[in-house]
Write a structure and sequence with these properties.
By secondary structure, the chain is an alpha+beta fold. Strands 3, 4, 5, 6, 7, 8 and 9 form a 7-stranded mixed β-sheet that branches. A 6-stranded antiparallel β-sheet has the order 10-11-12-13-15-14. The radius of gyration is 20 Å and the shape is globular. About 2% of the residues have low confidence.
């Protein structure tokens, strides 16, 4: 975003004017805009604003939410550059982990009992939205064992908002994540056989290799690949196929029976309206453009 230039053209392409990026007048303007459209912008269901952490802790969390995979989310905002935003957010994140029952009660009040029973405490997230970040901020988040996203914003004109992920780090150690992946792979091999295990591993490598900042989130019924928002969800292998759900509009795809399917409005595990059915390594190759399109949309 720091190097992005935006231009507005006339209907006849006879003129072109640059739309100058700007910061919000006050921090509250960014917060109110994001909170009003949090699910669209971040893939997070909004729960509460300026949430008090009580008289002992003595703080207020800017925004609380629940992401697509059921992970608790804290969002902190700064109008410009503020070296304290990450530490402040981590301070609140520690409080949140220590007050799980209180958070689940909030989820139950706002979203219902089913959502409260499915809160995923293995990966609570912190999203920091600010005018900019320093290289020291980017380095700092990579040293923490928490899920942290640094997001730069810019306002363009009177009706355009730009968001750019500057850094994204998933919680846990690389060894732990690798152990989980190997455990899932072994389970798939035991139940479905080596071919499906190899297919699942191939998809995992492709999705993780699409770019920096791809996080993997393990749920009982699917594995999500996240770039601020989910862009792919992979279900456990079936006997003869692997199902992947993508954030691609099925109307923009030439659907192929037995390979791609529109599941808009249909119940399924994970998120995304386009189902991709993979049976062979060749299918993984065929799906690469769809994987990239979904990654780009996130």
């Amino acid at each position: 975003m720091s190097g992005l230039r935006l231009f507005r053209t006339s209907t006849t392409n006879s003129a072109m004017a640059e739309v100058t990026p700007r910061l919000a007048e006050v921090e509250a303007d960014v917060q109110s805009l994001v909170e009003a459209h949090m699910e669209t912008l971040l893939g997070v269901r909004f729960l509460a604003s300026e949430y008090s952490t009580g008289p002992v802790h003595g703080g207020r969390i800017d925004s609380l939410g629940l992401d697509e995979n059921g992970s608790p989310v804290i969002v902190e905002y700064k109008r410009g550059v503020d070296a304290g935003v990450i530490n402040q957010g981590l301070f609140y994140l520690s409080w949140l982990v220590d007050h799980r029952a209180e958070f689940e009660h909030l989820v139950r009040d706002r979203l219902g009992g089913t959502a409260a029973s499915q809160v995923l405490w293995s990966g609570p997230r912190l999203i920091c939205i600010a005018g900019d970040f320093t290289r020291y901020d980017v380095h700092a988040v990579r040293e923490h064992r928490r899920s942290i996203d640094l997001v730069r914003y810019r306002l363009f004109g009177s009706d355009l908002l730009g968001l750019e992920t500057v850094a994204s780090v998933s919680g846990g150690t690389p060894v732990a994540r690798r152990a989980r992946r190997q455990a899932v792979a072994r389970a798939a091999a035991d139940v479905q056989g080596a071919p499906m295990m190899e297919l699942a591993n191939a998809v995992d490598e492709v999705l993780l290799g699409l770019g920096d900042g791809v996080n993997r989130v393990e749920r009982k019924t699917y594995r999500a690949y996240q770039r601020l928002r989910n862009f792919a969800c992979v279900c456990p292998p079936q006997r003869s196929k692997l199902l992947v759900y993508l954030k691609v509009d099925p109307k923009d795809v030439d659907l192929v029976p037995g390979f791609t399917r529109d599941v808009s409005g249909l119940g399924h595990h994970g998120t995304g309206d386009l189902e991709v059915q993979l049976r062979t390594p060749r299918d993984v190759e065929r799906a690469q453009d769809l994987f990239r399109a979904s990654y780009a949309s996130a």
